[in-house]
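Project standup — Tuesday

K.O.: blocked on the structure for the chain from last sprint. Re-posting the sequence here as requested.
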Amino acid sequence: MTAQATLALFLLSPLAASAADAFAFSSGPYVQSPLEGSATIVWLTSRNATGWVEYGKVGTAPRRAVASRDGLIDAGGLVHKVPLTGLEPGAEYQYRVYAKEIIEYLPYRPRFGDVISSPPATFRTAKPGPAVNFLFFTDVHGRTGMFTELLKANAGRPYDFAVLGGDMLDHLDSHEQLRDLLGPVGDAFAGHIPFFWVRGNHETRGRYARELPRYIASPNGHYYYAFDWGPARLVVLDTGEDKEDGNREYSGLADFDAYRREQAAWLAREIRGEQWRKAKFRIVLAHMPFPAVPGKEWHGQLDCYRVFGPLLNEGGADLMLSGHQHQHAVIPPEPGQHGYAIVRGGAWNPEGRTVIRVEVEADQLRAVILRPDGSEAGRWEARSRVR
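H.V.: unblocked you, prediction finished:
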């Protein structure tokens, strides 16, 4: 029998089918929100399971963490999200995740399958200090190869975290879509470099859109939040959909005008708080830029400008990072309109593929739009206005 015939018979055999269908990690692990003494590790499995994380500060004995609610450890799903607490600021932690397959969830004696574990990985928690660097990706629209392509533009320079700036997918219809996105994100960087997800308007669409929070972990459980890293205060806003709530595309299931006003009440408190006022730089992360691009004044952007714009001007925001328009741009502050610069990323199309690298060093802020070959498509630099 030839080698080709032997291989063909093996591929048709039950043994080969079993190997192909073996219990495995299908995405991750990836690190979320390593802030204020805690972090969250998320991973996906190919079959229903329970899981845990073993972690510890590099050089110390590991501890074990599980996710539990009301006395029950999370079990029986494909998505696993375990919080780690009691972490030190600016410290490096090593971790690995474990998953135990649940073959049959019987009431008194569940049947378990294999236990698998990930290779050891490390991450670093946020810390106060003179500097922070991060990357901003936007409008990938399912082209997951872009992450590896655009990381080449960063040329190996260190960065503390990444931001997925919205419209990572065209819509959300299934677990498999998120699995196939988060797998490449984890492989590219997110197993050791955390990311924050800024929801885009396309991620509000589809029957699975309401499931996205199960796959990510924000500092406060919302899509809008604020955090400190180095000398910067970062505010994440959820700009919602771009059309009116009553638009036929939303079938009567959208309520974004009220949601934006809920965020505005929170933002009003944020800009008057001590952390915002004392930060050397105040950076806003929002999928849709506002004011809107002239000639493209969709309702959502206009409403964002109405409810968020005056507050950001009052609070002295320095920079907004955004996407949505599928054309990269640097828009300087315009007196009487917006006191903050807007640096906008491109999109999935070959001529628009960009990543924004942000560098904050003491009193200097720099945002550079990079093409895949590392050349600059634009930049914005500013000095701190806080003394």
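K.O.: great, moving the ticket to review. Residues 57 and 103 are 34 Å apart (CA to CA). The longest helix spans residues 299-315.
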